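Let's sit down with a protein and look at its sequence and fold side by side. Once you have written the record down, we can walk along the chain together.
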Amino acid sequence: MEGDSVLLHTGVSELTKRDGLTWAFGANHSVIAQVSTSLLSIPRAIEERFWNRLKLDHKSGSLSITNIRAEHAGDYTLKLSAGAQSTKTFKVSVCAQLPLPVITRYNSQSRSWSSSCSVLCSVNVSAVTLSWYQGNTSISSIRVSELSYSIPLHLEDREESLYRCVVENAARSRTKLLDLNQFCPSDHGVPQISIIILSSAAAGSLLMAAAVLCCICMKCRKAGQKRKSLSSSEARRKKKRKEKVYVNIPKKQRRPDPPNL
């Protein structure tokens, strides 16, 4: 990882006065450090890329590379003369520092949840893998070879699930969680509650309307019955008055027959 230190071991616990070794770098085997007659030295004509970055262990001859960068990746060759001559090659890979992925919303719709939500996960680094995960399942992944790259995530239905963007290389990984409340603010999930509330309100309104209608019907029925009762009473009273009139009328007296002459 960039910025770290790397130690290349000779495999020797302690060099003797007769032992010698040479450290070389790259395909051209440019000498970057050596031990000769117990003297440890780093050539003054060393390549600029290694300036103030190399350290030799005075006992074992092991080589340390500090504050390593991508330009220090490559083959390091050790030639050791300790009785018999031996050669070792160390292949050093350097991974760039991983920045934390950045999540942004990229669609131009309203920031409130409609029918979908789209976000981008971006990194400003190359030679990494960029992925979207839902829980522990990878749902999309791409190998990034450019310095800056983004990978989209399109959500058709706002599931209350854990989404995360992961950037990784051979050495490590970094993760950024997707905050749905921030990037896809929800009216999704609320509609279900709203529907229940609206349905309950509608049911309550219907019940109230039914109760009002029932009361009106009952009042109308009572009023009808009252009118009918009044009409019957009035008819009976009229009948009684009529009978009384007939009773009070005197009977017509019959005139006597004229006398027979």
User: Anything to note?
Assistant: Residues 234 and 240 are 10 Å apart (CA to CA). Residues 102-183 form a domain with the Immunoglobulin-like fold (CATH 2.60.40.10).
